[in-house]
Amino acid sequence: MSELDLNRIDNMQYDVLREIGNIGAGNATTALSQMINSKVSMNVPKVELLEFKELSDIVGGAERIVVGILFTLEGDIDGMMMFMMDKEASKHLVDILLGNLQSSEIVDGDDFSEMGLSALNEIGNIISGAYLSSLSSLTNLTITPSIPYMAIDMAGAILSVPAIEFGKIGDKALLIETEFGDKDNSVNGYFILIPSLQSYSAILKSLGL
Fold it and tell me: pTM score > 0.85 for this model?
């Protein structure tokens, strides 16, 4: 199998990657609804192949404080994946999940409390797991994620981890930007998939492309 050139990806291949994003976002929304026991709506996600250096601008700039939950991937697909939200959006989601608690039990000053961090980690796990499960089901490929690593830091600092790790094999990531909402508010979440080039090829091959 020839190596995929992400700079020359054709429209059909791009449509398939976009559809993977649509299905993953739909599954993540369902999982989130079940977790918080409340209806969550989702706008059609925006799916783009972007260079690493462009990712921080999408989430509001390199200095914006975000929550990032990072996994490495093994199996038929290897690489890295990350779910990111800005800090205020993360607080809103945690507030929905722990809605019967006082705000002081969720945050400690400007930071999350231990209970808030635990809830945030669980939200990230469930949303990311839903994306991965849909990708695995769609492609019939085995994907094994690592134990998640969560960080709260500037977007540029968090995104430097996959950029350093995978910059040597390529400079593009699949960004799926999804707006989640309940009856009162909506928040943006960013799912970033960074497979190796061989894994991109494996995904497209499994779908007959």
Answer: no
Sign of the dihedral defined by the CA atoms of residues 97, 101, 103, 104, in that order: negative
Q: Which residue has the higher pLDDT, 11 or 9?
A: 11
**What is the SS3 string spanning the chain?**
CCCCCHHHCCHHHHHHHHHHHHHHHHHHHHHHHHHHCCCCEECCCEEEEEEHHHHHHHCCCCCCEEEEEEEEEEECCCEEEEEEEEHHHHHHHHHHHCCCCCHHHHEECCEECHHHHHHHHHHHHHHHHHHHHHHHHHHCCCEEECCCEEEEEEHHHHHHHHHHHHCCCCCEEEEEEEEEECCCCEEEEEEEEEECHHHHHHHHHHCCC
pLDDT at 2: 46
pLDDT of 79-102, one tens digit each? 888 888 888 878 777 777 666 554
pLDDT of residue 57 exceeding 60, the answer is: yes
The highest-level CATH class for domain 6-206 is: alpha beta
